[in-house]
């Protein structure tokens, strides 16, 4: 799945398959300017920063179990969001600090370091990287991902795929080759 935020005409947090199909709103009310998004892949939670409402909130992948983690004026300066174990991590552009926030109660906020100019934050950890299993976009014997001549996108599961073409090409009737 792909998770993303939008604060155009109607602010929301959404998810869809990697090929853009099955687009679903998971948060569509009491949300104004969602800017940063982080996923808890193990427990299946979505966290986001709303810089207009000055809050960091969370829901499960279906948009249920919503609650506020932390609220306050400092939120409007948060850039990026990451989850690792019991904490959320963000960058405060006002005082140039990396912050650690307890994701269960929001009260334990600790500055960890100062950085001159960050816009995003990511945590990489071996346990969070899912084991690769065979999937529909694996390279075939001819070197084509999933049998697609240009781009292969996973669809509703790791066993399904959608072929797409680069700009200026159209997908052939076989659903795999680009012309």
UniProtKB/TrEMBL annotation:
Signal peptide: none annotated. GO terms for molecular function: Wnt receptor activity; Wnt-protein binding. One of its GO terms (biological process) is canonical Wnt signaling pathway. LDL-receptor class B repeats lie at residues 1-43, 44-87. GO terms for cellular component: plasma membrane. InterPro entries: 6-blade_b-propeller_TolB-like (IPR011042), Cueball_EGF_LRP_Nidogen (IPR050778), LDLR_classB_rpt (IPR000033). This is LRP1B protein. The lineage of its organism: Eukaryota, Metazoa, Chordata, Craniata, Vertebrata. The gene is Lrp1b_2.
């Amino acid at each position: 799945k792909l998770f993303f935020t939008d604060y155009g005409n109607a602010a929301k947090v959404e998810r869809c398959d990697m090929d853009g199909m099955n687009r679903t709103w998971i948060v569509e009310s009491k949300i104004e300017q969602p800017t940063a998004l982080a996923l808890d892949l193990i427990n299946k939670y979505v966290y986001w920063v709303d810089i207009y409402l000055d809050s960091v909130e969370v829901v499960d992948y279906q948009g249920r179990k919503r609650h506020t983690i932390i609220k306050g004026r400092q939120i409007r300066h948060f850039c990026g969001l990451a989850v690792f174990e019991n904490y959320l991590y963000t960058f405060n552009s006002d005082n140039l600090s990396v912050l650690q926030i307890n994701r269960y109660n929001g009260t334990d906020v600790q500055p960890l370091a100062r950085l001159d100019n960050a816009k995003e934050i990511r945590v990489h950890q071996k346990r969070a990287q899912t084991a690769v299993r065979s999937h529909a976009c694996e390279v075939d014997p001819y070197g084509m991902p999933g049998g697609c001549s240009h781009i292969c996108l996973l669809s509703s599961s790791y066993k399904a795929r959608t072929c797409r073409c680069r700009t200026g090409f159209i997908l052939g009737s076989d659903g795999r080759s680009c012309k």
